Amino acid sequence: MVLRGSEVAMPYASCPTAIVNAPAEGVWALLTDPDGWAHVFDVRINSVDPPGPAVAGQKIVGETGPRLFHLKLAFRVIETDAERHRLVMDIKLPFGIAVREDLKCTPLDADYCRVDYHCGFDFPKGWWGRFTRVLMSREMNAGPVDSLSRLKHAAELRYTGQTNADRAKKGTGHDRSIPRTSG
Questions:
Q1: pLDDT tens string 41-79
Q2: Which among 121, 128, 65, 53 is positioned nearest to 91, based on CA atoms?
Q3: Is residue 154 part of a domain?
């Protein structure tokens, strides 16, 4: 049997990476708190079952997009590995698009980590798959890059804020922020 191009599913991978000015444990805490994802990512969480930190088998239902045009999302946690700071999820997007997200935080030192975000998109077979791939072509890279950027910002803001507060309490006067100069 010969498969024509119209019958074959069309996968796509986007794999952004970022260096984050925060410990891997801090980034991991943000990733494994589905109830807090709305404060980090462009998603509104409707339900988490079972409630609590991310665990294998957990189902999370949410939505994204403008409030008037809700795009439903269904997450299923496949694997969590706290020792390696690795989270794997399957996500169902509208239009029959499925995504496998594999996120890993690698400590670089006490204050920095690298976050690798492997995002594999699978599209439906046939003309609908071709159509959705064209429709989503910009978002296949922009979406993961935006999510990683939001995660980086939230982790750095949380870490820098805690670090500055801790330093202020200790009276060391050191600050992780960029010094300002007057002109």
A1: 989 999 999 999 999 999 999 998 877 778 899 999 999
A2: 121
A3: yes
Amino acid at 137: S
How far is Cα 31 from Cα 40, in angstroms, rounded to an integer?
Answer: 9
Considering the domain boundaries, does residue 33 fall inside one?
A: yes
Confidence of residue 1 (pLDDT cuts 50, 70, 90): very low
Residue 174, in any domain of the structure: no
30 within domain boundaries: yes
Q: Is the pTM of this model over 0.85?
A: no
Q: 172 or 171: whose pLDDT is higher?
A: 171
Nearest to 66 by CA among 43, 100, 32: 43
With contact defined as beta carbons under 8 Å apart, do 132 and 123 qualify? Answer: yes
Which uninterrupted H or E stretch holds 160? helix 139-170
Distances (CA, A) of 181 to 67, 157, 163, 168, 178: 42, 22, 22, 21, 10
DSSP conformational letter for 52: S
The CATH number for 82's domain is 3.30.530.20
